[in-house]
Write a structure and sequence with these properties.
Belongs to the acyl coenzyme A hydrolase family. Keywords: Hydrolase. This protein is α+β, with helices and mostly antiparallel strands. The chain has 2 helices and 6 strands. Strands 1, 2, 3, 4, 5 and 6 form a 6-stranded antiparallel beta sheet that branches. Bound molecules: coenzyme A (COA).
Length: 152
């Protein structure tokens, strides 16, 4: 994760066990989506210091399979905030613990999370942009937010 970006972020790392997989040793997509959803939630709880729910997951792409024994690292990065919603970019990379292979991107998605107070959408703190990297991330998140608004 880029350390010049100070927008809220979170990262977790897990080894995939048989409980996460089918009988052939392939990790279920839903297991990986659960990890991603959890990290997106943590990012937004850090930003709002409150309660958040998942409103949408956009264009989740499974680039590579994940197998039992692989280590997955999931990172979430706040990219943009609307009024009560937040765009979080979530990436999963996989380490196969095999000397011949490098860490590979496995999944990516944008999550829309909504801040709730008393069960209703509530304003989120604005983002303060300090660096060029943050500006680029913000523009990417804003583009995603606007695309989603057109679909609602
Ligand atoms: C998400 C939810 C709170 C939105 O409620 P709502 O009454 O439609 O809210 P509003 O129309 O006032 O919209 C609030 C914000 O959510 C965004 N939003 C609402 N539905 C959305 C959707 N389907 N996709 C993306 N964003 C959405 C709006 O764009 C708005 O963003 P903004 O404030 O930044 O402009 C409501 O649909 C809900 O509770 N859904 C179930 C959430 C859930 O159970 N998730 C799984 C467990 S965490």
């Amino acid at each position: 994760m880029n350390n010049k970006i100070t927008f809220a972020s979170a990262e977790t790392c897990m080894i995939m066990d048989p409980i996460h997989s089918n009988s052939l040793g392939n990790v279920h997509g839903g297991e990986l989506m659960k990890i991603m959803d959890n990290i997106a939630g943590i990012v937004c709880v850090k930003h709002t210091k409150g309660t958040v729910v998942t409103a949408r997951v956009d264009e989740i792409e499974f680039h590579k399979p994940v197998h039992v024994g692989n280590i997955v690292t999931c990172t979430g990065q706040l990219a943009y905030v609307g009024t009560s919603s937040m765009q979080v970019m979530v990436n999963v990379v996989v380490d196969r613990l095999d000397e011949s292979s490098d860490q590979e991107p496995a999944l990516t998605a944008f999550f829309t999370m909504v801040h709730l107070v008393d069960g209703k959408p509530s304003k989120v703190p604005k983002l303060v942009i300090n660096t060029k990297e943050e500006e680029e991330l913000y523009k990417l998140g804003e583009k995603k937010y606007k695309e989603i608004k057109l679909k609602l």
